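FAQ: What does a ligand-bound record look like?

Like this one, built around copper (II) ion:
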Amino acid sequence: METQDNPTKRYIIYGLLAIIIGLSGYLYSTDNSERPTSNGSPSPTPTKTSTLTPTVGSVEAAEDIPGEMLNEDQSVKEFTIEAGSFYYTPNMIEVQKGDTVRIIIESVDMMHDFTLDAFGVQTPVTPAGSSNTVEFVADTIGSFEFYCSVGQHRQLGQVGTLIVTE
Ligand SMILES: [Cu+2]
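The answer part, i.e. the structure of the complex:
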């Protein structure tokens, strides 16, 4: 006769268990949404992982700097000189001491060169229609003759003057 009590108690116990499990499950799930815990025990520090994305760059920017540009824009004094029979145009060029001087000689007939003994400068002999370039540093103040070393061109008047000022 007392066996009827047992099922009732079991239902109550099961019911309580169900409620407890349900509650714990509910708490666990809400807990889970906020912080990941392995087995319900509260983790003291919420694991916040802030990932730092490495910045890739500035390598290409460094490669974009052409080294030759540095010389181009600074103290290079460039002169294009026409060489003919028997003259230079212009036949007088003026620079400042310390300037890097670039001479471009353009030959318009026969063949000519540009010779400047004071600075040890001489272009190759340049046939008509072509050009040659020579570069030097004007490191001495003064007035210096340049001339064409081909044949008798110098004696025939193919000379000019480089003036280097302070
Ligand atoms: Cu000449």
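Follow-up question: can I read anything off the structure? Yes, for example: The two ends are 130 Å apart (CA to CA).
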